[in-house]
Design goal:
227 residues; alpha/beta; five-stranded parallel sheet; 40% helix; 22% strand; binds calcium ion
Amino acid sequence: MSAMRILVIEDETAIADFVQRGLQAEGYAVAVASDGIEGERRALHEDVDLVILDVMLPGRDGLEVLASIRRVKPELPVVMLSARATVDDRVAGLDGGATDYVTKPFSFDELAARVRAHLRRPRQRDATTLSAAGIELDLLSRKVRRDGVELRLSAREFDLLAYFLRHPDQALSRQQILSAVWGYDFDPGTNVVEVYIRYLRRKLELPGKPAPIDTLRSVGYRLTTRS
Ligand code: CA
């Protein structure tokens, strides 16, 4: 069995070395990226099982890197490291989709215990393409095809379609869609979801093939995969 792969994104060399050496001694394959841009690229494009991500980074900060990882690999465990121990930072990291949070200074044993816990959890392979109902969506290139025909979607339409493809044949309420795609935890009282569903349907339609998104009266919407 090959070693679990961990990517450490940390600009402080002393901490990066300390974490890398400790995790290698535990049998993991460890790579280090020393700025946010390199770290983001490697987290998205390389096959990694877990990311340890510092918050304060040159190039692109940890929360921005976290947001990119979550768009492409929603299941990848990410443990944030931060010297900023305030409750607000902790909440921002967890709201941004961090799996866990370790505050500097930390003991190696504390970090190693969390890494073990998150690697033990079964998760789906981090597919970078989603497909259902004849639709293929590539999360890295952001290209979308239906029955081989390339479709041009706006960024929001793309995110909306990705959300449906992650939950095929499930009834999704307007509120669920709003908070997953727009990030609102409250209803802003607009019909933004309806408007974007209409845009998306128009783009998904092909001659003789209606868009596979159904309206469920007073419930929400569903991507239907059976033909
Ligand atoms: Ca740092």
